C-alpha cells in the first residue's frame, strides 16, 4: 500500500462512514451539504481541518481518529476477538461457549453505548443549531 493511499483522508472518511452504516446522503444532511459534496470530499486526498472536525463529529469519532484510521487495525481487532481453528461443529459450539475474552464485555458494551449515545446527542444538537439559524 502506497503512502498516498494510507494518508488518503477521503477514503478513510468513506470507510468509517460505511462502518458506521451511514449513507452519503445522511452524512450530507448532518453536514448541511449535498450528497455530491460528500462524494467529492471522499474522493479528496486531503480535507481542510475545520471540515475534518465537522465530519469527525458527524461520524462520532475524532479528527485524529480519522487521520490514524487503518483497515489493518480493524481487521486485527476482529481477528483477535474470536478464533476458531476447528471445522468440527460440535467443537465449534463447545469452544464458543467456553470463549473467555481478555476484556470485560459488559464494560465494553456500556462504553460503546455511551459513545453512540453521545454521538446521537451531538447530532441532535447540531441539527437543532442548524434549524435555529434558519
**Which topology of the largest domain does CATH recognise?**
434 Repressor (Amino-terminal Domain)
Distance between the termini: 45 Å
Number of helices: 9
What share of residues is helical? Answer: over 70%
Which CATH-level-2 architecture of the largest domain?
A: Orthogonal Bundle
Output the CATH class name of the largest domain: Mainly Alpha
Radius of gyration using CA atoms only: 19 Å
Instruction: Note poorly predicted spans.
Output: 1-5, 91-96
Please trace the helix and strand order, writing H or E for each element: HHHHHHHHH
Strand content bin: under 5%
The H-level CATH homologous superfamily of the largest domain, spelled out, is lambda repressor-like DNA-binding domains
* Coarse structural class: mainly alpha
Anisotropy-based shape: globular
GO molecular function: DNA binding
Keywords: DNA-binding
Pfam family, one: HTH_3
Protein name: Helix-turn-helix transcriptional regulator
Give the topology:
Layout: H1 3-6, H2 9-19, H3 24-31, H4 35-42, H5 49-59, H6 63-68, H7 71-81, H8 89-97, H9 105-133
Helix pairs in contact: 3-4
Keywords: DNA-binding
InterPro entries: Cro/C1-type_HTH, Lambda_DNA-bd_dom_sf
GO molecular function, one term: DNA binding
Amino acid at each position: 500500500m502506497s503512502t498516498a493511499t494510507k494518508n488518503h483522508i477521503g477514503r478513510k472518511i468513506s470507510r468509517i462512514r460505511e462502518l458506521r452504516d451511514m449513507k452519503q446522503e445522511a452524512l450530507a444532511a448532518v453536514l448541511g451539504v449535498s450528497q455530491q459534496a460528500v462524494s467529492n470530499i471522499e474522493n479528496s486526498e486531503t480535507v481542510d481541518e475545520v471540515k475534518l472536525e465537522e465530519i469527525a463529529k458527524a461520524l462520532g469519532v475524532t479528527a485524529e481518529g480519522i487521520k490514524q484510521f487503518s483497515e489493518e487495525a480493524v481487521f486485527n481487532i476482529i481477528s483477535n476477538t474470536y478464533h476458531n481453528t476447528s471445522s468440527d461443529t460440535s467443537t465449534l459450539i463447545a469452544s464458543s461457549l467456553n470463549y473467555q475474552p481478555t476484556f470485560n464485555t459488559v464494560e465494553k458494551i456500556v462504553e460503546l453505548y455511551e459513545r453512540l449515545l453521545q454521538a446521537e446527542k451531538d447530532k441532535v444538537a447540531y441539527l437543532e443549531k442548524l434549524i435555529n439559524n434558519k
